[in-house]
Design goal:
This protein is of the alpha+beta class. About 35% of the residues lie in helices and about 20% in strands. The longest helix has 20 residues. The chain starts with a strand and ends with a helix. The structure holds adenosine-5'-diphosphate and magnesium ion.
């Protein structure tokens, strides 16, 4: 078993959360809407209708390309990918083939031991989604609400050699989509879909295997890993038996925990791509790309690095906190609040992570105070606390005035003063109460 090496490439589709469809005006926000209520003549493929390009979608696609270190093409073009299926009213999908919007990018994945693998990205292109078929009781129902929702496809080179690299890469992509705000990238809802292409070769060989098995319609990271693992084993066993593998599309049966044949090479489509004559080519000006580049938000990887260097927290903690933009912002706000009263970023990071703080319910200030409270070897004698409080009030006239003039926030720095003088050995709630009593008397 060990003399084989898996070779895997990943295709990722992500639906953009634009207001309107890729080539017309009906709503792209179709989730849980009444079937066929988000449609118009263009995405129903009615005769006489003409498409026009959704500029926001193009911008979002470029943002994804830039985040993945791609070149943005000077000239790109839409092509028709022809095939017949009931969920495709025009008889073709508008996609990109020879002239994608973004190409030649990369993204790095890192394993537990810190080994970094660079995954090359062949292209990031813009296309449209299809309608949705529902098979019930011998009937098939068609809902065109999803028809022509903007879809971006990200195609990697076959640079993965195990399933965990694929999972890490896919999760990183999901995080990037969310940071960019271009998609919810929810796997269960189908906002984000994965197709893994899997083959195996003898270790030491450098040429690509002359076949690949495409695993389609997998709607969770876990199923994808399971399907890839299963495939690697199945293929090695087949090769060991002297069988010859050919190109196939397979699905994942979660009940049986195995892949099953959906389509073999003989049935592969000839899509007869050609440029869509109804749409202009896109000429992208350098200045447009530059301005998009300068408006890019800080992305997860950069944020992790900054959290480590600015706050001195561990890499593991930084990665957890950067998991979502909201959590990362929450952490930074808490660090800001903790400065005044000498609560360290490391303590804050540990607290938020270990206690699984609910950031929608607990205020950053509460976290800081909780931490300060727990640190104390607690001086309980109020007389003693009052003495320190009086000193601090004398020494900080400005904060006292501020407080009396309505800037109640000034109490934070006074609390900080008491904490410093006592080496943090007092209960912060007691300090706050004593301070308030004195300030308001
Ligand atoms: P298609 O439209 O036929 O799916 P794409 O070019 O969109 O073709 O995607 C091909 C995918 O298959 C890419 O992710 C590529 O890296 C991957 N791939 C190509 N050859 C192999 C191979 N021998 N083993 C595994 N993956 C491969
Ligand atoms: Mg493909």
């Amino acid at each position: 078993m060990n003399q084989y090496e898996p070779v895997i490439g990943l295709e990722v589709h992500v639906e953009l959360n634009t207001k309107s469809k890729m080539f017309s005006g009906s709503s792209a926000d179709y989730f849980s809407k009444e079937p066929n209520s988000c449609t118009d003549p263009t995405n129903l493929g009615l005769p006489g209708s003409l498409p026009y390009i959704n500029e926001q979608a193009i911008e979002d696609c470029m943002k994804i390309g830039l985040a993945l270190n791609c070149q943005i093409a000077d000239v790109s073009r839409f092509e028709r990918k022809n095939y017949f299926y009931p969920d495709l009213p025009k008889g073709y999908q508008i996609s990109q083939y020879r002239w994608p919007l973004c190409k030649n990018g990369w993204l790095e994945v890192e394993d537990k031991d810190g080994n970094v693998t660079k995954i090359r990205i062949n292209r990031v292109h813009q296309e449209e989604d299809t309608g949705k078929l529902t098979h019930t009781d011998g009937q098939t129902l068609i809902d065109f609400n999803r028809s022509s929702v903007p879809l971006v496809e990200i195609v990697s080179e076959p640079d993965f050699h195990d399933s965990s690299q694929v999972r890490d890469y896919a999760k990183k992509l999901q995080q990037i989509f969310r940071y960019l705000g271009v998609s919810n990238a929810d796997m269960e809802r189908g906002d984000m879909r994965l197709e893994a292409n899997v083959s195996v070769r003898k270790i030491g060989e450098t040429e690509l295997p002359n076949y690949r098995i495409e695993l389609k319609n997998i709607n969770s990271f876990r199923f994808m890993v399971a399907a890839i693992e299963y495939e690697i084993k199945r293929q090695i066993e087949a090769l060991e038996k002297g069988e010859k593998l050919t190109q196939e599309t397979r699905g994942w049966n979660e009940n049986k925990k195995e892949t099953f044949l959906q389509r073999s090479k003989e049935e592969a489509h000839d899509y007869r791509y050609f440029p869509d004559p109804d749409l202009p080519e896109i000429r992208m000006e350098e200045s447009r790309v530059k301005s998009l580049e300068s408006g890019m938000p800080e992305l997860p990887e950069a944020k992790v690095k900054r959290f480590i260097s600015d706050y001195g927290i561990s890499k593991a903690n930084a990665q957890i906190l950067v998991d979502s933009k909201e959590l990362a912002n929450y952490f930074e706000k808490t660090v800001e609040d903790g400065k005044d009263i000498g609560v360290s970023p490391t303590d804050i990071a540990n607290y938020i992570i270990n206690r699984k703080v609910n950031i929608d319910e607990v205020k950053p200030k509460q976290v800081v105070e909780e931490i300060a409270n727990r640190k104390v070897g607690v001086v309980e004698d109020e007389g003693e606390i009052e003495k320190v409080v009086d000193e601090v009030l004398m020494e900080n006239e400005k904060s006292v005035d501020d407080y009396k003039n309505g800037k109640t926030n000034a109490i934070q720095s006074l609390i900080g003063g008491v904490m410093r003088k006592t080496g943090g050995k007092v209960n912060i709630e007691t300090v706050r109460r004593v301070l308030q009593e004195k300030l308001e008397s």
